[in-house]
Design goal:
The protein is an all-alpha fold. 71% of the residues lie in helices and 3% in strands. It has 13 helices and 2 strands. Strands 1-2 form a two-stranded antiparallel ribbon. A hairpin with a 2-residue loop joins strand 1 and strand 2. Helix 3 packs across helix 6, helix 3 packs parallel to helix 8 and helix 6 packs antiparallel against helix 13. The radius of gyration is 21 Å and the shape is globular.
Length: 277
Amino acid sequence: MKRLLSIELQKLWLNRASRVLIISYFGILSLIALIANIEFDILGVHISMADQGIFNFPFIWHFNSYVAVYFKGFLAIIIVSMMANEYSYGTLKQNLIDGLSKKEFIASKVVTIAFFAFASTAFVYIMTLILGLRFSSYTEAAIIFRDQKYIIAYLINLMAFFSFCLFAGILVKRSAFALGFTIVWYLAEGLLYGLMRWKLFNKEIADSIKQFFPLSAISDLLINPSERFKAVRAIQTNIGVTSQVDYSLHWTNIAIVAVWSGLFIYASYYILKKRDL
């Protein structure tokens, strides 16, 4: 596995576009710290992000994971481009001629996406710990290490989404079209949910079906934490609204995402095995 990972990382690092995207991705993740300087007014209330407790333990684990997951598109571009380049430059055929089996080829891609997922998770974990220790009002060990489940959810989210991107890259073979395929799939899930919600079933049934959609299940791993902000809770209290959002990480959701991840990886291998290169 180490040899396969080394081969893939070398390919990516020698590609200027991939190198720039990787550096930009981790650079942009570092800018999460600047959120503390954001201030704005809403409904006549002045809100300073630094005063919302977003860097307090244990909430910071949830907040940083949720914000960081939106930047995974940078790595998604790298993954679909990684597959597109194999076809465009003929390296896939050359690797097979040199003795690499199709199973090893897919394994090299899976190891690579796992590497990026773990590297990103480690980066977010360390950055979150540093920001929390610097700005949090609570520094007791029991509080610091509470709710790290959101970091786990972040890792699972990346692994699953990158598995889908690998599948899209192998299926479509062109990076731009593969990214377009991902967007179309996402929109299709939304349209199908809307059809079920407004035409076929009630909200409860539609939601219970929607949780099995792959991209929806991946998104459900990290719920928007905005209703946990102090200002939002204050506004809800003033208008008599009680938050009903469930922020728990459910094992059923993890199982659904894990199954889809396995299916996408297997489908990638199946397509490659059957395709005439």
